[in-house]
Amino acid sequence: MDGSSQAGPMPKPLPGNSALLRFLTCGSVDDGKSTLIGRLLYDTKRILADQMVALEKDSRRFGTTGPDLDLALLVDGLEAEREQGITIDVAYRYFATDRRSFIVADTPGHEQYTRNMATGASTADLAILLVDARHGIMTQTRRHAFIANLLGVRHLVLAVNKIDLVGYDQARFDQVAASFEEMASGFGFASVRAIPISARYGDNVTEASEQLAWYGGPTLLAHLEQVDLVDASAASGQPFRMPVQWVNRPDLDFRGYSGTVASGCIRPGDPIVVAGSGRESRVARIVTMDGDLARAGAGDAVTLTLADELDISRGDVFAQPDARPEVSDQFAARIVWMDDAPLLPGRSYLLKLGTRTVTASVSTLKHKVDINTYDRLAAKELRLNEIGTCNLSLASPIAFDPYEQSRTMGAFILIDRLTNRTAGAGMIKFGLRRATNIHRQATSVSKQARAAQNRQKPCVLWFTGLSGSGKSSISDLVERALHAQGHRTYLLDGDNIRHGLSRDLGFSQPSRVENIRRVGEVTKLFVDAGLIVLASFISPFRAERRMVRDMLEPGEFIEVFVDTPLEICKARDPKGLYRKALAGEITNFTGVDSPYEAPEQPELLLEGGAFEPASLAERVLDLLRVRGVIGSE
Amino acid sequence: MLVRNGWFDPRTMDGAGPPGPPECCKPDMAIPTRAATGRRWLASRDALRHLVRMTSHLRRLENESILILREVAAEFRAPVMLYSIGKDSAVMLHLAMKAFHPGRPPFPLLHVDTTWKFREMIAFRDQTAARLGLTLISHTNEDGRAQGINPFDHGSSYYTHIMKTEALKQALRQHGFDAAFGGARRDEEKSRAKERILSFRTAAHGWDPKDQRPELWNLYNTRIAAGESIRAFPLSNWTELDVWQYIQAENIPIVPLYLAAPRPVVHRDNMLIMVDDERMRLRPGEIPETRMIRFRTLGCYPLTGAVDSNATTIEQIVEEMTVSRTSEREGRAIDHDEAGSMEKKKREGYF
Ligand SMILES: Nc1nc2c(ncn2[C@@H]2O[C@H](COP(=O)(O)OP(=O)(O)OP(=O)(O)O)[C@@H](O)[C@H]2O)c(=O)[nH]1
Ligand SMILES: [Mg+2]
Questions:
Q1: Which residue among the candidates A122, A233, A539, A615 is catalytic per the annotation?
Q2: Which of A14, A313, A352, B55 is deepest in the core (most CB within 10 A)?
Q3: ipTM (interface pTM)
Q4: Among A17, A88, A119, whose Cβ lies nearest the Cβ of B216?
């Protein structure tokens, strides 16, 4: 950022942000990442006397270095990490020399914790990739180089560590450095450099080493102090963007829009456009508590007031009218998956980009990446720590720039709607169409008009439950009764759909998700047509039932859980499917080798084992009367 | 010591006297080395040169903190700011004023009052809330008070658990807060260095350090289920030095106890404990003496160690810091309990 325009009491800072370097250490397990950071902290005098005493105590108890202090214990701060002698989660540490301040993220090498490495890389300008001089480049080294590049880390350092264990051998260093250069050349990092070090003994970390006299380059720290951080392409001519984070309205006289400038810069009088609505105005003031500013640049947290009153809320994006961001509800992106539950195309997630959160799903999973060869592989799902390229489809259009152009405007996270976990991290490649160019066909006869003519409130009765639980029998009875009373209905049944609309789908998890998505879309059209829809599907996953619920208006989705014990369903086995599944003739059968997630709060729970279908159907009709779906005579 | 309107205003301070000598202590174990170390890092003579550069660094920190404050305020139903009256709280509160200017921060302040805080802290707290026109909720664990839980009879660990951790949970529950800002910094302690900026807590306020939500870029996942909450740490990336330099640059009022003055203290368990009121129980042989001291961190007076110091201005504190060889946590009895104790307390719901 450039703070020189700010009217605060602080002295004028130097231009540019080269005073601070954010970097991470990464690489394979046990290659010495935490030891290196401990060494940097120690050598730069960041370890204070009482911390030294604690380190000494810890080294005796948990140390992996015999009689010596174990510097990794300065960074591995969790009990579990100290007991296991590995890093589990990112640690952030801070140190400074007289040239630069540093924020360093120490990330875990263990494959299981790859997502934590990606976390550390997302804000870093430089990555120190460590290798053990004895072992050279490993799978995890390749994976981390790939992720660092994917997340936009611009500078890469290969630290050939434990050089003491190969007798400070130049030939070995050259060998490792050569295979590294071959690997790194394909990526397009702004700078790449190999440096021999011993983190444990401190050779060539902050001080040059006599044992490494053959090495003519800078020490690791000298390199960190010198590396040129000015990104020429980014510094000049980035277009102005600011996501609105907070509408500041303390009283009737003031209406400001607070946010952090994502890119470019802005001055009072400059024209701006609200990216989504396309409405334009001019900046009146740039307000801060230190007084109004003459200019705000990338990274500045400010409050803008506009010359005109526009309807603007959190999630909108201010942009420069002659260089607007793309606005679309579909784009292509790379995704790093971070959750134990795999990413399934069609499943709905929450997507957060900037200050905006929308519902989204992966419409196509184009391929995933083989981390050894960097080859593209076909994939039906993305599992924990896998990386893939996808098309995403959003519930409403959103403003963005490609990640290459802007880390702020091009990055998003995906959140699991049931567990609320941060399930994936995404980087946008490009938009797939401009939503502004497709217009929804406006129709003159409305949903309400169609519903009124049918004398009913359109809705869907969604019957879910195990195979053989009685869904079809009950829904059939309900439809007959409704029809007899003159209501307009349609019944969608799993087996029938599978013969037509979803003929191309199997029974794996991704296929089941896609099947329900299609049924959901069809349901939505029928509800729009004013019908009472009866949908009878095993639909074993909560997330998909939730997805269909979200496609409809509130109150339209009525979940009916036909709760029949598995033992009874097995005994009934009307189609002989349980027998086949138990014999292993069919796989992915719900209740046998595929899970059923029972609804947590269904609108209606029917005990299928305890009552006859006719009395259960009567309870459904009662509910429809209570909810005013049908008249009560 | 100049105190105006009850709070300390650094602009009116003048002070003199060199900083106290750095404390030194050398461990017995060897630091493995084969390379000679001869370079000096950030010795005090470098501090001034350093200062110019640190300001763009401080601006970055300020901007990041404001982003976090606004994001949490925008996305949570009922946020609150834990105000512990110390220097970090002072900076956090100042940043909150900036984040919502010209409006007010859209959340109240919460102070967990153990009833054993320094008297000057409580006075400063009330003046600060009044000066800024903010709502301040003071909460005490009344069960603990009724039982007479105190740091002398019950030990620092049990006392802290009842009067701080449990009290905090009570207050959050009672008011239904779903997000609480705290002024903790990652450089304070090794388990803090592992914590997210938005730290997720279960319905029982527990922290699971091994299963934290990945936190990429500055995209914060603010989704929680009913009963769950988050602790938000806008100062995560600040160091102690950053905090003091910012206080200096921004003229932020702080409790006068941070500046050296003659105060009555006793030597106890390797700490200098101030005799703040008549409830202080003296052990046999302890006679209060008046020494020139100040505090690097503030808490409950019977558990907070002072340092000998002549630093009577913020400038002198910054100067003293650059040569200090001990961490601020040295002065906190509750942090000495056992290895990994901070992590353990946090898993139980401590800030
Ligand atoms: N001989 C020698 N040993 C080293 C060196 N660097 C690290 N080690 C040792 O290698 C072991 C692993 O070091 P760590 O720093 O914990 O490795 P890490 O890369 O952080 O491991 P994870 O974070 O768990 O992936 C420790 O016993 C270190 O003392 C070195 O330069 N030379
Ligand atoms: Mg490690």
A1: A539
A2: A352
A3: 0.81
A4: A119
